[in-house]
Amino acid sequence: MYTPIIKIEGIAVFYAKEVLQMMVRVLIIWAVLLAPMGAVSAATDIAALQARAEQGDADALNNLGVMYENGQGVEQDFRQAASWYRKAAEQGHALAQFNLGVMYDNGQGVGQDYRQAVSWYRKAAKQGDADALNNLGVMYENGQGVEQDFRQAAGWYRKAAEQGHALAQFNLGVMYKNGQGVGQDFRQAVNWYRRSAEQGDVDAQVNLGGSYYLGQGVAKDYGQAMAWFYKAAEQGDAIAQFFLGEMFLYGHGVEQDYQQAASWFRKAAEQGHIDAQFNLGLAYSFGRGVEKNDLQAMIWLRKAAEQNHANAQLMLGAMYAADGGRMQDFQQSVSWYRKAAEQGNVRAQNSLGVMYFAGRGVAQDYGQSVSWYRKAAEQGDADAQYKLGAMYDIGLGVAQDFSLAYSWYWVAAAMGDKKAAENRDITAKQLSPSQLADAQKRAGEFFAKYQPKE
Length: 454
Prior knowledge:
There is one protein chain. This protein is mostly helical. The chain has a domain at 365-454. Helix content is 64%, strand content 3%. It has helices at residues 46-54, 58-70, 78-89, 94-106, 114-126, 130-142, 150-161, 166-178, 186-197, 202-214, 222-234, 238-250, 258-269, 274-286, 294-305, 310-321, 330-341, 346-358, 366-377, 382-394, 402-414, 418-428, 433-449; strands at 5-8, 11-13, 20-22, 26-29. A hairpin with a 6-residue loop joins strand 2 and strand 3 (20-22).
């Protein structure tokens, strides 16, 4: 019987800077659950089994359901499967109750009905069925068929986890990590991840590796992190493959090796991992671990960009804008800069301002240039702050205003822009003492408010 086990957790690391951020991951795990007597082979005498079933043999009833569900020895028929499961379930057969719950959960052979799924899971759970206990936890966690209740979810996960159920152990670890239904406790999260990981659960292996990588719930240990990532990567897990790429890229717990980094990024990228696609694109762009190849760089960056990876969109914009580049295309550049800028990417906002200022790929529009410079300046970008000051200084796209020009120059200079410092001092000569005092006060307010984003 197939059952969806929803598992939430994940970690992503960006190539351009060593920033780890937890992100949500939903994975559907399909498990085939057969009868207590063992798997039913296709060679089973269907007639004999059906005869036993018609005499009310609960195991036979459930086994027939399995055969019809999986198309073993008979034509696959979900309605027949659900019917046979129901007959066994109504006799109190725990596995059949669970299987029927899954049919309602998935809407196979019956109309999808989460309440009915919960009802049958609960019946099986009361008999101690670990899969039913876990799935009941999933239903409470997601509020499907019952009111969402993290405490109930954690309670059901625990019952299954204490029976050694690997998926429930992982799910309980996630609850401890997130502090949902239980007090947040990273050590307990690691404890349950480890139990699950040692049974081969790939997501638990990833999260245990991530815990060692971050030093969350355990002492930071890159060697242990790499060991667990390897276990998951060997099972084809893209996140683990991505992390191995990161570790080789930065030399975390291993000698820095760009070729190994690129190799692992490729494995993850080919599975659609967005950050791995971005990193592989950068590897081709800079010739790190692979031969420099702008076409390959653009191919992989585009794959990430089309998944709304803002930094990939920024990079594509820059590559299309490159002077003398054989793929120079200002309209494409503007298009990708805009996509990234609209996601709040500060460098893309500043670059889009430049494109409007120069009339590259768009009609020249100083007002639009000012608008995008302002967005970037208010996110703490010193170059955009300097340029915005210059627009006020000259009166392009805005009314000329030496006081505002001074304030923006002052902020950019405080961020370390030397040219802004020169222009600030020149502009100060255009202001009266009282105007200068106001401009300096405003500059201090701007500086406090418009710091670079983390």
